[in-house]
Each structure stands twice: as C-alpha cells, then as structure tokens.
Design brief:
There is one protein chain. This protein has 995 residues and is α+β, with helices and mostly antiparallel strands. The chain folds into four domains: 173 residues, Pleckstrin-homology domain (PH domain)/Phosphotyrosine-binding domain (PTB) (PH-domain like); 365 residues, Endonuclease/exonuclease/phosphatase (Deoxyribonuclease I, Chain A), CATH 3.60.10.10; 119 residues, Immunoglobulin-like; 166 residues, Rho GTPase activation protein (Phosphatidylinositol 3-kinase, Chain A, Orthogonal Bundle). The protein contains 30 helices and 29 strands. Helix 23 packs parallel to helix 28 and helix 29 packs across helix 30. The chain is globular, with a radius of gyration of 36 Å. 36% of the residues are buried.
Amino acid sequence: METAVRSLLRSSEDLKAALEVEVAQELGDLPSSSAAERSRRVLAVVSHRGDYVGDEEGSVLILKRTPGRSVEDLSIEVAYPISGSFSFSVAQARRTTLDLRASVGETGATLDQSRSELTLTIKYELATETRSHTLIARDTRKLQCFTAECRRLKDIFTRNEFAADFSWLSLYTQQSSLKSLSSPIDLRTINTPLHTRLSPASAGLPGDDAADIDIVREHWIYNKAIEEASTGSSARLLIRTGTFNINGKTPSQDLSPWLRPTKRNSEISGWISPLKSISPLNMLSDPIDEQVASSLGASSVRLAHESLNNEALASDPDLFVLGFQELDLSTEALLYGTSTVKEDTWVEAIFAGLGERGILYEKLASKQLVGMLIVAIAKKSCLSCFGDIRFSAAGAGIMGIMGNKGATAIRMSYTPFAQEFSPSPIVLTFVNAHLAAFDEMVERRNFDFHELSKRLVFDQTDGLDSDANTALETPRKVAGLFESDVLFWMVRCNLLLDYFTHPFGILGRLVDYHSTRRMTNSVVKDLNYRIDLADGDVRELLSPSPGTGNIPLLLKYDQLKMAIASGKAFNGFSEHAITHMPSYRYASNTPQDSLGYDRKRKPAWTDRILHMSAPNVPVTQRSYRSHPQITMSDHRPVSADFELNVSTIDKERREIAASKLYRELWGVEQSSKTPKIKLQPMALDFGKVYYRRLVRQTLSIQNDGQIPCVYRFVAADAEQPICPQWLKINPVAGLLRPGESLTTTVTVFVDNSSGSRLNLAPPRLDFTLILHTALGKDHFISVAGEYQYTCFANKLSRLTRLPGPARTVMSPNDRVSERQSVNAPREIMQLINWLMTHVTDLNLFNGPPEESICMNIRECLDTGDQFPSLKSGEEHGPLATAITSTLVQLLDSLVDPVVPPYLHARCLQMTSRDEAFELLDEFPPESVNVWISLTAFLHYMSLQKLPSQSSTDQADMAERLAAVFAPLLLRDDATGLHIPVSPIGKRKFLLHFIG
C-alpha cells in the first residue's frame, strides 16, 4: 500500500504515514462485500520541502481504491493542506446494536466486530462550508503514527503561517491539465509534427523554453499514458461510408451493389464499362449476385436467411454511414425543409438493399438539412458500443447560410466490449457536405470548407434523448469538428476538371453564367486557378484505349488534389488512390458519349470520401469505388470501406497514469536544478554519400541530470532549416526523465531536389547539428560525408560539357568548353544504345524493376563502367526492365525537361510530321540530339512485331510508349511561369516522331 501511494508522489514529496480505513456506515447498516470494497479508502500524510531549504508543509490525502483492482490502482479523491483550517479527532467506534432478527451468519459477523475499531473524523473549513469525513480505522499503531505526523506538521504551519503557500498541492487537488483525457486533441494539432509547434529558436536564441516545455510535456504524457494503460488487445471496427447525389430522385433501384459490393474483375484493373439502365422492377438483377448464388447452390441460397441467427459475418460492416445530397430540390424544401418523408423512404431503401442481412442492423441516427441527409446504421450486436451521439448542421448556400449547400454531421463515441475494466472510448465524426457548384468556383469551395470547419460544432443541446436519464446528465462541453479520433468527410465537392466546351471558350461560358450579373474582379481572379485541360482530352484519357492507366495522369488536374497539395483546403486529410471512373456526370435523357457521360458536362470525380485520424487509432482503407450499376441519378454512388484497429485502453488506468506523470513532470520550469544530457557519439561520419542510397546512423541521448529534460534540435540561424535537405532527424524533439535515454535516427538520402544542389557544390559534406536543452545549454554534433557526384539531377547542358563520367569530376566547375562538348549526354546514349542492341521484344515494362539492379546501373553510368553482361542462358528481361526504368528515372531527374516549357504550346500547334521536325530547329542543341536519339529508339520499338501481333497492336505499342515518355520529355513547368499544356497534345506531338 505504501509503495502504491509513493508511486503517486513526486520526488519533492515524502510519505510520512499511511493506513487503510473505511467510510463510516449508518447505525445498523451492514454493507455487502461489494459495498465494503467501495467504501475502502487509504489515508496518507505527505510532507513537502522545496528545492531551497525551508520548513516542511504537510497535507492529508484521501485515496480511493478502484473496486476489483489491486492496491496499485489508487486515485486521489481529495487533498487537504495541514493548515489552520485543518482539524481531526479520534474516538471509540460506536458498536452496532445486535439485531436478533438477523440470520445466524449476520449475527456472527456483528459479534466478531473488532473492539479496536476507532473513528477518525477529519474536518476542513472553507469560506462557505466545512467539509467532514468520518472514517473507521482498525490498525491502531498506524493510526497513532498518522495523528502524530498531523500534529507535527500543524505545529510547523503555526510557526510559519505567513511563509506557507501550499502551491505544490495544486497537483494533487486538481486533475491533470491534459484536455485529451476528457476530449480528443484537435486532429490538426496532433497530426502536426511536435517540433513545428514549438517557439522559433536557433543557436543562442532558445525561444520560449517554458512554453516549449509545456507543449512537449503534454504531448509526452498523452502518448505515455496510453502506452501504460494499454491492455495489449484491440478491437476491429469495420465501417462502410458512402456518398450519393440523388438529384432529387426517389429510390427506384436495388442499392445492394452500393451497400454490399463484390470485387469485380473489371474493377481490379480500374476499368468499369458503361452499363445499360436497370429496370426499377428488377431488384435482383445484379449479375454478380446471381453468379455468387449459383456458385453456392440452390440449397445454400434457400437456407441463407435461416443460418443468420441474428449474427453477422465477420466481413460485414459494423457501421454504415451514408451521405445523400440533393435529397429534395423543391423550393418548398429550401424554405420549409422539415419533412422527413424522403428521408424515411431512403432509409427503407437502405434496409431493402441490405437484403437478408438487414435484420442484423438498426438505424442509429440521422440528420437532415434540406437536401443533405446523413444516416448511421449499426449492427444490433454492437449497438451498445455507440453512444454520446450528437448532431450539427450548417448551411453554405444562398447568402452563405441557406441549406441548399452546406453540411450535416454526426459525432459519436465507440467503446469496445470489455468485462474486466472500463475501456476508453474513441470519438468518430462523419460529415456529409455539398459545396459550391461550377468549375470556376474553386476558391468559393475552399472558403466553404474552412467556414464549415468552424461552424460545425457539437454542444450539449444536440444528441439523442434516448432515455429519461438524459436530462439528469452533466451538460456536455462544446466540441469542435476536429476534436475527434477519426474524422470522415463525405463530400459532393464539384471540384471539377476545367474544360472548354463553350463555342467561344471559357470567356463565353463566363458571359453566359454572368449574363444577369456584373463580372467582378474577383471572378476574373478565379481564372488564375483554372486548369488548362480540354474537355476532349478528358474523354480521350478515359477512353478504353489506352484505358484507365490514364487516371493517375488525369487526377493531376483534379482541383481537390490541387487544393490539398497547396494546403488551401482539406489540409491533412487522406484519400485512397482513385481507380474508378469519374462518378459525374452521366447522361440522363440527354445526349451521351461512348462512356455514357453527358456530352455537355465534362466527367469528373465530384463525389469523394476523405478521412483523418489520430496516430494512436490506425485506420486502414480497404476499398474505394463507384457503383455504375445504380443509374437512377446523373451521379453514381461512391463507397469506401475502413478498418479501425482500436486498442483497448483501460480508461481509469489511463487517467491515473496521466495524473502520476503530470505530477512527476510538473515544476521543471521552476526547478533550481539544471537539466543535463549526455550524447554519444558527438560526431557522425557517413562516409561516401550516393544518389538515392539511404544511410542511417543513430545518436544516443541520455538524461544525466536530476530533473526531467526537454530537448529539441534547432537551427544555427533563425532563417535556416534545422538540417540540410539531404538530412533527416527523428525525433526532432522529446522528453527524458532522469536516467532515461533514447535513440535518435539520423538519415541521409539524396533525391532529385537535393541532388541538383549537391551536384553544383563541393563534394565535402560538413554540417553541425545543434541540440538544445530547454532551460539548459546547447550541444553540437558534427556531421560529415563525401558526396559522390552523379549524372542524375543535372541539366542537359551541363552533362554535355562534363570532361568524363560524373564520378571523375573533381569540382562543380570542372567542365570543358562549348566547342569540346559532346552532342548528347554519354549516359543517355549509353542506355539507348544498350536497349537498341539487346531488346528485340516488347517487354520494356515487364513488371517492377529490381532496385539492386537499378543501383548497379546507376553506378555504371556515374563511373563509366560497362553494364553487367548476361551469363550464358540467362534471360535479359530483368536487366532490360532495370535499364528502361533507369532511362525513365534519368529523364525525370533532369533539372529542365528535354523540351523547354516555353516551346510546349508551339509543339501542340504542329499538325504534321514535317511541321514537327521543322520545330526541332528551335530546340536547344543538347535537346535536339537527345530527342532524335530517343525517338528513333521508340520508333524502332514500335515497329517490332511478334508473330501473334497485328498492325493494331503495333499502333497500340506506339500509344503506350508515348503515354510513358511524353510527360517526361515535355514535363510541366514546376515554377508556374508557363501554363501546362494538354497531355493528349504532348502525346500527339511525340507520335509524329514514333508513330
């Protein structure tokens, strides 16, 4: 018991006495065994002496034992300073009157009552009341020690009344300041690297050390408390989210493909062919379902419902959260949107779509705002795991407040099943949003996202009044949208790919749209954010040939991807790789193209599902797909499956651990002691540093002092980064208790960006890392290495003037005159010549290359050595694949593309092969020779014909080669000075030479 009490105390506190007691019962009240366990307490007398020599200050702690737990799980219930307001008294316990009506067992228990029981009464006088505790003690020896220490410490207080402040006691009278114990930390904060949250600092200018200590300490306690309270087990939670813009329609088709999708061969490759409309009466027409049913056999299908027995399959989602947009497009709904008729209709359709498994689910919650509806449906078997359900809604439509645009949201807690302890819940938040329409409104959509992020809040007035006790609960605090463990955002974002479908181009479309409005400067400004991609390009990139391999290229022009990359909206959210066809806009009684899309509306991925999660709640996305079988709207529904691995955390133990840690680490800022650390080693030598070769070394940091230490790496100058681009440190900041140590990893990796700088700098790498200890001194670690020059990440003009292979260059200024320069870089020609000599089939991209072979090829290019020779009978496929991949990598690493960006627009104007060849006269000399050599090789490859191939296959090969090499040779300008041109136009220009 005493060990358990000491574990709650800081080093500045000393345990003087402790004893076990019970809360006194009423006369004649015989508690049951469980009630007696709940009434047990531990009394402790604690003294405190500060860093500076002074008189003691005392306190009495009343600690509570958690029922069913060991004595180690003590928590402080109340703490009283031993001051003038404190008093106590001891008396003989009043014996319980014998009840002759009681049973023999109960009477025996009464007769066995110890005559040594004493009653201890503790009083503490406050300004408005007097608190009193009556306790029963049986250990007279420990009680005497307890009272003696109380008298001694009160005498000390009487002598030094004016010097006592008891400020140290605040750590025992208040709960930990960690907000995360009652509500999750804002996801935007917890997912931000710790060192970026600290004050600006550099060598000699430490910044605000006290504030930094508080930030690092809270972060450390948050993670450490979870670690100590973890039970080692976890619960799996399966969630299916879905978004569907129903365009005001009522359900007229089976929704099972959306709710219970099966992997299709066509979807594995990413390609979904257009389907004909399905009859509203044909509710079981899904050919996949029929195929599964036939494979199971008639008897299996007939008995499927009987075999459920109210238990779902392990693969069935535990929770469905579905978002609908444009539920009701009527004017009445906009003005008086209170009817739930359409909501009820769609909920019925959802359960019908679940089919025989619908009986296993129950509607958990729903929220509607005019045309937006979010519905949550949970398994009955885990319904009790979900609680504290709250709602929020915010309009962002007309005048910025109407509900034709905006969002609805549901917030809920999920608590895993556990019998032996109370698990810590996690908070799940789901948002269903409909943002501003029209391509040119991208900035408005970004604005709407930030506005909704602020306005969607959950307070105590929201939630489910599921029982009569709800009104008696303590009012809940207001929670922000990002105060969650996992946040899902289902959005109909209208973040379209820009297009030019108007006869008079973009200006004509804007004139049409603003014919009744004045075109303001802000509208014109929006044009700067448009994407120069023609409508015809979009449809051609989506066409079956060359297929959905173009989807990654097309997504480069997606406004939502651009907004996330630039940090303008949805910063920090993750989206699974998109492999499905655009979900918008399909033709509905309008002319359609070969893919089924509306000829007047460009296809786009407007229906999206994104998520953000805390680091301690791993989220794995299992699928992300659209469902073209459901054709009732001009949109196709989209679904995403998530698996949450929820660690079972003992809630009470986590709170106890956090309180202990907080008390242990409190007061570092006020301590008179200086933090001390020991580093090993003080110098890191990475030897030879190569392009794209990762090298790691470790640095040991040990707290060699008597108080906790907060450390961080800082820059030598306030305007400089902590370390160069080719160097990474992990972790950058942290906390160590006395005697603790940790290992910091220092990693060197040279990529294209850092390589382009190192190729123009001296080869010697010298740098000094600075480790700052908060309220302490700086430590310096020298980093050294020898950079090995490479042909990668250079300009073509520089490669042609190198006196030899890159590795033989002694300094960045070592180059020959322009008259002595070579016609084309040796390295590119070496790769092309090998491929022309050894490759006679079309297996240029035969699977992923082996990195070890690629590394060997890069070394040969840099040193001038010959490529590895094939052994007798050895297949050249892996080597050819590696050399082809290296050629692609070398072209992609060039600082400037082969075709300068200022010529890209001219390239697209060429309408014939002759015109294209004439344009080569305007290419830089080094670019001309590379272009001619490379296109000659690609043309040669496109002419190779296998016995089983037709001329159509040869044309397809040229298209495939153009799809790979056109984006490399005509790479977009990263500086933004030159507008990107059509990717289809780039391919057509290259095909003039290789087709």
